[in-house]
Automatic annotation (TrEMBL):
CDD domains the record matches: Riboflavin_synthase_like
E.C. numbers: 2.5.1.9
Keywords assigned: Repeat, Riboflavin biosynthesis, Transferase
A GO term for molecular function: riboflavin synthase activity
Protein name, entry field: Riboflavin synthase
PROSITE patterns: LUMAZINE_BIND (PS51177)
Length: 201
């Protein structure tokens, strides 16, 4: 489990296409400290498994399902990525419960800078809109954020200078894709309510 508090901006150093999968090599001195084969690291909000680890780099295999559902397929050598290690039991939950299981992708629609923060408008797939509410939590490229405004096909978030400086949302522009993970608690509540009404969705 992750919390959506990005530990560092990493970089893609190699991409190998394997037919129905891809292998990425990524640099991240913080998240690779003490890393071992089989460990989990979230890359732009996608939970990946460390295959190899050498120095400040690690490799991870990404299967077709993940490439289809997320924006990882658009990564190239030199792409910057948000990196986070799983939270330790007993550690502070600085963001919210994040699984690293991307529900879909959105697109940066608009950026409105102000003196001390920036409002970013992001498109929202119709299938996910019911899980996104004003002042609720959402994960964008692995970043735990609070929804400012929720529409039927979009939502907005307000980014503080720290988020702009230390994550990919500081440089992404209109048209760029982002990974979205909605609040898992909302999905469980929906499932339980549906079961109680005699339906299974």
């Amino acid at each position: 489990m992750f919390t959506g508090i990005v530990e560092e901006l990493g970089e893609v150093t190699a991409v190998e296409f394997l037919g129905d999968a891809s292998r990425f090599r990524l640099r991240g001195p913080v998240v690779t400290e003490g890393a071992q084969h089989g460990d989990s690291i979230a890359v732009n909000g996608v939970c990946l498994t460390v295959v190899e680890h050498e120095g400040d780099e690690f490799t991870a295999d990404v299967m077709a399902e993940t490439l289809d559902r997320s924006s990882l397929g658009a990564l190239t050598i030199g792409s910057r990525v948000n990196l986070e290690r799983p939270t330790a039991v007993g550690a502070r939950l600085g963001g919210h419960i994040v699984q690293g299981h991307v529900d879909g992708t959105g697109e940066i629609l608009e950026r409105k800078p102000s003196e001390n923060w920036e409002i970013v408008k992001i498109s929202l797939p119709a299938a996910l809109s019911r899980y996104v509410v004003e002042k609720g939590s959402i994960t964008v490229d692995g970043i735990s954020l609070t929804v400012v405004d929720a529409g039927p096909d979009h939502f907005t978030v307000s980014l503080i200078p720290t988020t702009l400086a230390l994550t990919t949302l500081g440089v992404k522009q209109p048209g760029d894709p982002v990974n979205l993970e909605v609040d898992v608690i909302a999905k469980y509540v929906e499932r339980l309510l549906a079961a109680g009404q005699g339906t299974d969705r």
